[in-house]
Amino acid sequence: MKAPDTDQATRLARGQRLKTMRTAAGLSQSQLAASMSARYSVSRYETGSRDAGNMTLGMASKLATALGVDVDTFTQTLLNVPAWPTLPSRRYETLKRRLRRLGHTQAWLAEQTGLTPLQVSRYATGATYLTQLSLERATRIAQTVQAGLVDLAQW
């Protein structure tokens, strides 16, 4: 399911924050693109023609790595959200195991995040990779299950 579209002002603000992170890292769009094969996407995100909150968690991870920051810091800066409390990840943890550890069900997670129960089931069982989620949805899931986005990307 596609994430809801945001208004132009929000897209522009996110694009400006991405540009600020890129220039702070001392990279041009071409240099950033060369490190991840996404020149046109970077330009479109920076100009606001595409909403950076709709990029996938996988793309955000690549951008964060290219910019020299972790994906949680990248996301908090890009989406302008405060840091959220996280629990340490356990070895071999998955979304399904984290929900069980917190005493919650997949249906509960679906209610909290706006995903359908089928979508949550596919992510929890590994049938669909969490890196395919939009950055906004991945952030909502991470906040809800008290996980870092780095952990989420590995589940």
Could you explain how this protein is built, in words?
The chain has 155 residues and is mainly α. The radius of gyration is 16 Å and the shape is elongated. It starts with 7 loop residues before the first helix and ends with a helix.
Give the CA-based shape. elongated
Distance between the termini: 20 Å
What percent of residues adopt helix (DSSP H or I)?
55-70%
Number of E strands: 0
Based on CA atoms alone, the radius of gyration comes out at: 16 Å
Query: Spans with pLDDT under 50 lasting ≥5 residues?
Result: none
Q: Order of helices and strands, N to C?
A: HHHHHHHHHH
Strand content: under 5%
Average pLDDT reading:
90
Largest sheet: none
The class by helix and strand makeup works out as: mainly alpha
Number of helices: 10
In brief, what are we looking at here?
This protein is mainly alpha-helical.
